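Fold it.
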Amino acid sequence: MKKNYVNVSTLLKKIALLGLVVSALTLHSCGNDGNPRIKDSKEKTIKESTKGVITEVEEIEPGDDYKIIDEKIIDEKEKSVAIVHRLDGKIDTLSLRKLKTDSEYRSSHSSLRNVLAFSLAASYFNRNLSNTTPNSSYYKDQNAFNKSTGLKNNLTSSATSRRVHIPGKSSSGYGSGKSFRSYGG
């Protein structure tokens, strides 16, 4: 009968040891704070705009070709808009928030959104200001482009900075890491 107690005692010790091993492995795959680590991650500082923009565009071809004619910085980011001067003389004011979140609204203005991606309005859609670079080919003239380039410096100087982890080479892309999952078709 004593032997059974020894076996149960030994079994409990082995279970406790196994628990310690599992805990140690779990902590090893996480940072010291318990958060998962990204393999080969790099830390990067991003700047996020705190201000909004008003981007004025002019329709060049009906419905599919626009040029940026002016941009302004405003204090409230959520009030960012695109003002569209149509060929027929109408003027539309489009919310950038709605262009970002409403898929039906976004698809009905897709060619306009493509132009906005190369203006200061891109700071509303992108979290990182370094991904916001005015492109002169989308501006009606060099003066409008130069003004926007100068305003980007103002957006950057008032932006907030934060550090993020981005995946390293072996953490991103198809087939870049080893997986325990597979599909045998």
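Residues 28 and 34 are 9 Å apart (CA to CA).
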